[in-house]
Each structure stands twice: as C-alpha cells, then as structure tokens.
Please model this.
Amino acid sequence: MIRMKKYLRLLFLLVFMAMSGAWLGAQAIVRGTYLQNGTHDAMTIKWRTDSLTNARVWYGSSPTQLNQVLDNPTLAYDHTVRISGLSPYTTYYYAVGDTTVVMEGFDSSHHFRTNVVPGSTGPIKIWSIGDFGRNNAPERWVRDSYARYAKAEREADVWLWMGDNAYDAGTDAQYQTNVFDIYDSIFAFQPFWPTPGNHDYQSVNQNGLPATHFGPYYSIVEVPHQGEAGGLPSGGEMFYSFDYGNVHFVSLNSELSTWVTAPNSPMAQWVVADLQATQQPWKIVYFHQPPHSRGSHNSDNFWETYMISMRTNFAPLLEANGVDVILCGHSHVYERSRLMHGFYDYSFMYNPVFEVDHGSGSLAAGTPYRKSLSGNNPNQGTIYAVVGNSGSITNFPALNHPLMYYGWGCDTCVGSLIIDVHNDTLVGKYYASSGQVMDEFAIIKDLTISAEPGYPDAKAHLSTWPNPFDQALEVTFDLPKDASVQLQLLDLRGEQLYSRYVGKMVAGHYRIALDDAVGDLPSGTYLLRLVAGDHVVHRKIVKINL
Model:
C-alpha cells in the first residue's frame, strides 16, 4: 500500500510537471534553427517550438564556450533572436532554447560566419538553387552534391533561392516537409537569401497592392527592408538588396503582378535608385521568372505574361545600370547566355549584334568575358542564367533559345550554380548533382584596386592545411603589396599539373580552398607554387588517398 502511494505521488508529480511546462521534455523544436539577414556585425536566428515558450540564444567562439546569452521574453511558437555587435567575418557557435532548457545546439554544426565588411575584395562564394522544394530524390541529390562540395572546398558565403521554394502551393506544411526537413543540416550554418516564385505565391494573399501581401513565404523569411544590409530601403520584404564584400545583390519579385506588368512601377523606380546608389563594382540581380528561356517554359509564349514583363520592363533597367549577372528559375533547366546588351524581344527577332562578346566566356579555355569601366559603353554586358532544376526536371526541353550559349535539361538533369567573385574576376560553374561541371563562364573587369596600408614590402608568405592532405587543401598566403595571383601545382620534375588564376588582389591575408582537380591527384609529393607579381614562393605538399 505504501509503495502504491509512492507510485501515485510520482505519477501526479510527472503529470503536473508536464502540464505546467516544468518538465524539461515539455517543449521541443519542430522547425530547426535557420539563419537570416546576416551582416558583417549581426545575424538573426529563427526556430519553431511545439508549445508557447520564451526564447534564448547562447553563442560564443567555440561549441564549448557559449558564454554570451540573448533572450526574447515574448511567448511564441515561432522564435526570432537577432544578435548584434559581432565581429566581421568571424565564426560563432550557438545553441537555442528557452530560459530553462537548451533545445538545440552546443555542437560544431550549429555555427555561422558573419559577413565581410562591405567593399572588401576577398574571395566570395555564392550558391544558387531554384525550383527545388519537392521532397524528392533529385532535390536530395543536389543537396548532397553541395554538401560534398562544401566539405572539399568551403561553405558558401551567400545562398540564393530562385523561387518555387516549396511545391506545390507554398503552404507552411509544404515548406516544412519539402524544405526545412530536407535542408535541416545545412540550415544550421548557412543563411539564405530568397525570392518567391509562382508556386510560393499560391499561398500568398494577393488582394490589394503588393505591400499588403502576406502568407507563409513572408512569415518564414526575414530579409532586409530598411537598408540594414546595404542598399536602399525597400520598405518591405517583397523585394530587397544587400551587400556582401564588393558584390551588390538585388532580389526582385516577378510575382507582383501590378508592379511587374506596369512600366515605371514602384519596384522599377526603387531598383534603378538602388543600383545607382551602390558603390560596389559587382551587381547580381535575381528573381523567379526569366526574361529568356526555352525549357519547361518558353518566354515566347504570349501567356507567359510575367516572363515577358520582366524582359520588357525590367531587363533594360538592369542592363542600363551595369548589372553583371541576372539569375532566375521557373524553367526547369539550366541555361546561360553570352554577354548580352539590348535584346528585349521575342527570340525570332534575335540578332548577334546584341552580343557584347560572341565567345564562350570560359576562363579555363582562355576566353573569359571582359567588361571595361571606361570607353564609349562602360560596364556594358549582362549574363542571363536560368537555374531552375535544383529539384525539378523536364523531359525533352527545346533548349534552343538563340540568346543562350549553353543549356542542359532532361528527366534526370539536376544541379546548382556556384559563383566565385574575387576582386576583378567573377567565375560561375554549374555543377550537376554528380559533381560534374557542365558549364563554366567568367567575367573580368578592369577594376582599379588600391593597396591597403600597413603591410611591409616583404616576400609573400605561403602555407597549407592539412599537410599531408586527402581531398581538401586550404591555401593561406599573405601579400605584401597588390599583385595578380596564380596558384600552380607541379610534380617533383617541375611539370605543371594544375593552374588556377586567382585574380588581381590587394595587399592582405587570404585563404582559398583548391578545387576538385587537386583531390583527384594520386598519392605523392608535389610542389605548390604561388606566383604573386614578381614574387614566386614554393611549398612542398604531400597527397595521401585514404
């Protein structure tokens, strides 16, 4: 009898703790942490719990040194905590929960890296995906391909979404199963910068002016609208801009019907003012519906109203203001144009006279596109790219738009685009989910880069990690003065096996991960050569295949 009373008291205590929230297992995260609106000194962390709780974030310099705490006392299911006062380009680790218990984190996967200071000229890596949120095998192939790439090279600094992020209707439940549950391991460390697509907009209230639109997409994302990440304030989350290093990014909204189909709309006025105000030498604009495509959507079809409107109402404005690359999704293929200027019509009206450069744009082939900032047509030329098969596929696409230099699509063709920007050079590579590079293009600008003071006139320093190495090789070097930099790999007989032109760089400290060509080398001893202007530095490295 006494034992039974003890059991009853214990049962009553457990029920009371569960009902009162005192039991540590009462709250749980049902939408894992994700990162938003990162700048050089701030980051927003968001997550969802299964019950109403307050919010706490622990953060610090290592997973075991989370010695700073920030609370949001508001009781909510969806939690938002913005950390400010951070150091530029610094890795922070974090954990989240409420004021009584840690729910997620305190491990190496939960981390973020703040942005570089706007205007910095160091290397920038951009990962672009479109039309991905299907909860299918192709979406996972692309995710896993990027995870392998990030492990071998390094994580991207900027993750761009080209729209149609959650099929079929952009509901909150579809965002959960088709996006958050798929990319949960990546969300823990990789902020994303989205644009909505037509499928996302099926769950967005579109009554009234665009500024009144609301729905799951707008509830989930948190993007800059007061100019807090660079660029002009947009006044809302419909479209926005931000800076990373010396790149200015603009996210437009091709689904704002009244502001897309009408010339000189508020969005058009804003983007012109924004592009003219930026001081960054590189400009990348992205939105969902492409001006030109012959994939699962044909930009010549009269019913493709938004595609036509983005071509006639916005493409001229973007080109006139020096935009270097326009990225889109919608058409479930990959397509990439030559360097273009002035063509805003149907494809049967195409004429090569609109090509600023008729070549391939391949840096590896020695034919990159070049843009001069002087002369009669300064900074003229734009590349159009469609990245709409990061989870979506199409059978037998035409892929014959005359503006496009390259196209790829089929019932198993999926992948993503990675762009590297470093000082005067922009290189884009489209990776199939297998890891194969299907297309490569580059733009080189005649930028004038001034030296940073304070570096002694000494020889360039070179080091590598790890050494010996298996797949990944990180190269670190210091430049005492401005120089054009090239990395070369030689065997012990002096035969060159690999060469990579890094670009024109200012004096400073740099860290670069070499690409897949190095990982494919057989085991052995090699020489890594850094050519920096008139300085040549060598270091012996050892390759082992585990």
Observations:
- The first helix runs from residue 2 to 20.
- Confidence is low (pLDDT under 50) at residues 1-25, 449-459.
